[in-house]
What does this fold into?
Amino acid sequence: MAGVMESELQGMTQEQRADALGMTTEQLTGRSLFVEFDPDAAERFNYPWAPEVDYNKRIEIDTDDMSTTEVNDKMRALMDEGYGTIVVKNPRGKHSLGVGILSRLNLIYEGSLGYFAVGLIDGPNVRINGRVGWSCGENMMAGTVIIEKNAGSTFGAAIRGGDLVCRGSVGSRTGIDMKGGTIIVGGDTGALSGFMMQRGRMIVCGNAGRNLGDSMYDGTIYVGGEISSLGVDAVTAELTDLDRSWLSRKLKQYELMPDQGVDHFTKVVAGKQLWNYDNLEPTEKKLIL
Amino acid sequence: MCGIAGLIHRSGSSNVGFEMTSMLQALKHRGPDSTGFAVYGPPVPGGYVMRVIVAEREDIDRGHGILETISGRIEELEKRLAEHGAKVKEKEPATAYALRYVLSHDGDTAAMAKYIEEIEGVEILSFGNGLELIKDLGDAGEVSDTYQLNDFNGTHAIGHTRMATESDVDIRSAHPYWAFPYNDVSVVHNGQITNYWIMRRQMERMGHRFMSNCDSELLAVYTAHNLANGVSLDDSLRRSIEEIDGVFTYLVATKDQLGMAKDTMAAKPLVLYESDDLIAMASEEVAIRAILPQEIDTYDPYDEEVRVWQA
It folds into this structure.
């Protein structure tokens, strides 16, 4: 509240009070992606300026009798030894496997993972030849994750970058709070997918559950099947040639291109009627309202 | 948080006691306070199995003269059984405070159960032809060992690992809940019911009894009410999604069925595996993997999804 006395606000219109308090409205569209990490800040951080790793240096580990911590520690030790491809056998649905990998790596899971699989990753290419539980790829920064079967709810929650692909169907709240990157679902997605989505793109080849894109701020959702209902402030938009081109490229890349092409996809974006951003603290806001 | 699990064999019996123990032990991290099982064995010919507690476990540690009190409660319980024409065929103390009876009885189960539960400290955990409901403090391995569940053969089972949030850490607040007084019906639940008190008062006005302040008990009472009024299990589960508020996923088992329901928000997890012979479900896949280590296909049921399987 720089330079304004509370007594001066009295007698002003609401608009004048807002101006006097220096309130500005933030425009989210058109903002460029910003690099959030300094490559020199963390010891093993090496993306996007990462040196090439030797993907031919390959090893398999059987994790049947190992705890989550033991598996993750073992993988980090193998990465330090220069292994560029790690195959994890018998993961048996363990939680939190492969989280926080900040290097390039080919990581292959021969089986299903539990909750929080490969969250917070920044660079690896991951293939999961099974299913994943809730919150797979949460806060993922970069890289590629491909799940061959189904996934649980909150798939790709708060993802910021990279491609997160599930060939099967996923649960509810897919891409909740997503801030960038691409989520691709080969089958159906559940209710409240794209809830509070802020950036990024989501492709659902099958059907979408209730309240799709509810309260989304920005970003784009493409749905190939039926949409049960749109959420608050989610609206459909015209599919442009640019959309078709991008959809085709992404779906071909992951071998999910429908036989009929991409013309049938519905595009969903934010209506932006709920936008109400300002720079004031709640106590200051009260002086205006 | 709590963890729930269920399984049903569609082609005969299996060691469901051991299987459910393995599943619940894998879910221990979701709730270490207590563990409960509702296992369904072959029907007892011409009779019923009744599981009952005559004290809480903490009473044993704290209570002065509790063992004499318990003896008195058991004596009174058996007297009241006899008054209602029930004949005790077998009596098996599982612990100092939990007993298993095999009875023959032709009378009114509800009236007898209410009469018995008027004895202070006595609660009937289950009553039925095939249902055996066991719950106690501790993890699945401990409870299973104590109650010798590792060799229990049957067709289906549900179970629960509890993290107490809104009611006590004791046996009466543990799951599963028997759908009193409906024979062979049990319920486990993961979630919070936000119109619990409104619904509870409605149920109490209709004469239903509640033994705890745990919101999950409502689902058992609600299910019993519906079934007693001729509503099918499938319809009861569907109605609950409309009538009960909150976030919940729950399982109901009857003598030959297993059902599941998920609320409109789908905020409580359930992973499902389905084959021709076996249906298994749990809050986390790791529990299903405890009995099916081979690669399998599983999926998450969606919001408002209701399923019922027949044994």
Q: What stands out?
A: Residues 27-49 of chain A have pLDDT under 50 and may be disordered. Chain A has five helices and eleven strands.
